[in-house]
From TrEMBL:
Keyword GTP-binding: yes
UniProt source species: Salmo trutta (Brown trout)
Similarity annotation: Belongs to the small GTPase superfamily. Arf family.
GO molecular function terms listed in the Swiss-Prot or TrEMBL record: GTP binding; GTPase activity; metal ion binding
Protein name: ADP-ribosylation factor-like protein 3
SMART domains noted in UniProt: ARF (SM00177), RAB (SM00175), SAR (SM00178)
Amino acid sequence: LSHFAQGFFSVLQKLKGTTEQELRIVLLGLDNAGKTTLLKQLSSEDVNTITPTQGFNIKSLTSHGMKLNVWDIGGQRKIRPFWKKYLENTDLLIYVIDSTDKKRFEETGLELSELIDEENLKGVPVLIFANKQDLATASPASEIAEGLNLHTYRDRAWQIQACSAVSGEGVQDGMNWISNNIVNKKRDD
Ligand code: G3D
Ligand code: MG
């Protein structure tokens, strides 16, 4: 298993001890951000690709009491009403950014801020992976956080985590944050 998968399942195991509920996670980001790479080790037989008639793909992974929906966003404004229902009852949003793709920082920031405003994602904790930090051209996570105005997010827990989906570096730290902020929070509910 990848670091991501290991971290993921250890989080789930903790959660399983605290709740009967399914953990619902959506993993979003522009195309090419690194979502599939993050999931590579998880996505063998369990993944179904739902292709709703509206013309977008959602990969859905159900495993260990977790339902994980993964899809590319951006350039999908017209069909947004159709995918909104996949955001219902979300426990956690993981948003992946290609830290080397400066040309699209504005676009990815806009998409994120619109997601944050979605009714179905109100108050939902968000973990942002500033991915591809193994590349010399990557912007540091702190700079990306500033560009995204993360400090203005006051209605939810959030974290930005530098990582490389390829090497696995930083991925476990992100998972630890989930474990501390989602699992423990659910236990208090
Ligand atoms: P997506 O599912 O979000 O669209 P992918 O993104 O996981 O398909 O990744 C897009 C490209 O970025 C892939 O390259 C992938 O190998 C690369 N990539 C993803 N994460 C990292 C990372 O952390 N570091 C580096 N260096 N590359 C990464 P290709 O060449 O296959 O298109
Ligand atoms: Mg992909």
